Amino acid sequence: MRNAQITRKTRETDIALALDLDGGDVSIESGIGFFDHMLNSFAVHSGFGLTVRCKGDLQVDGHHTVEDIGIVLGQALSRALGDKAGIARFGSSFVPMDEALGFCTLDISGRPFLVFDAPMPQPMCGDYDTCLTVEFMRAFAMHGGLTLHLKSMYGQNAHHITEALFKAAARALRQAATVTGGGVLSAKGVL
């Protein structure tokens, strides 16, 4: 069973999330339209089933909602992968989005790290602050146990840059989480 359901309630957010690495329903309600679009794209391009319901303190701004969903999605990924036996472990993807080109490479290593190189030419996409992309990816990597590298190769539109990065991360994660058989892919024998 490569799935997980997690709830997390704080003074800032109330989140219920379900993740199925082998597919399923996709339904996203974060309260931030552009972020819903990114999470939906992530689910579609990863092939994962993903449902997210979040009530956050959007009267403040979107930071807590975006970061906390990253935390919970990372926790769900880690739980759904279990001991990581039989997975490909590594994945990489380039994704074009009109004039923008996004790149992701990652390792489901259990050693969380984020390298993020993606300047955003515009500060907002609808009601989404583009500086929150790095916050989401950091939370996701740290709580998912991912070594995650993301780079915008080029682009002029923050919507396109952000979408290319989310899709590249999804496609790379799909590769890395693929079951290839055998034990844990590590000279140490554990991840």
How would you sum up this structure in a few lines?
By secondary structure, the protein is of the alpha+beta class. Helix content is 35%, strand content 31%.
Primary descriptors:
four-stranded mixed beta sheet; 191 residues; single chain; alpha+beta; 35% helix; 10 strands
How do the helices and strands line up, and which of them pair or pack?
Layout (H helix, E strand, L loop, with lengths): L2 E7 L3 E8 L5 E4 L3 H14 L2 E8 L6 H19 L8 E8 L2 E8 L5 E5 L6 E2 L2 E2 L2 H13 L2 E8 L3 H20 L14
Parallel strand pairs: 3-4, 7-10
Antiparallel strand pairs: 1-2, 2-4, 5-6, 6-10, 8-9
Detailed description of the structure:
The protein has helices at 33-46, 63-81, 132-144, 158-177; strands spanning 3-9, 13-20, 26-29, 49-56, 90-97, 100-107, 113-117, 124-125, 128-129, 147-154. The strands form three sheets. A four-stranded mixed beta sheet has the order 1-2-4-3, covered by helices on one side. It has four helices and ten strands; from the N terminus they run E-E-E-H-E-H-E-E-E-E-E-H-E-H. The mean pLDDT is 97. Helix 1 runs parallel beside helix 4 (158-177). A hairpin with a 2-residue loop joins strand 8 (124-125) and strand 9 (128-129). It is of the alpha+beta class and 191 residues long.
What is the number of strand segments? 10
The helix content, as a percent range, equals 25-40%
Strand order of the largest sheet: 1-2-4-3
| Mean pLDDT across residues | 97
The backbone outline, from C-alpha atoms, is globular
Structural class: alpha+beta
Strand content: 25-35%
Give the CA-CA distance, first to last residue. Answer: 19 Å
Annotation field: number of helices? 4
In sequence order, what are the helices and strands, one letter per element? EEEHEHEEEEEHEH
Q: How is the main sheet built?
A: 4 strands, mixed
Based on CA atoms alone, the radius of gyration comes out at 16 Å
Uncertain regions spanning at least 5 consecutive residues: none
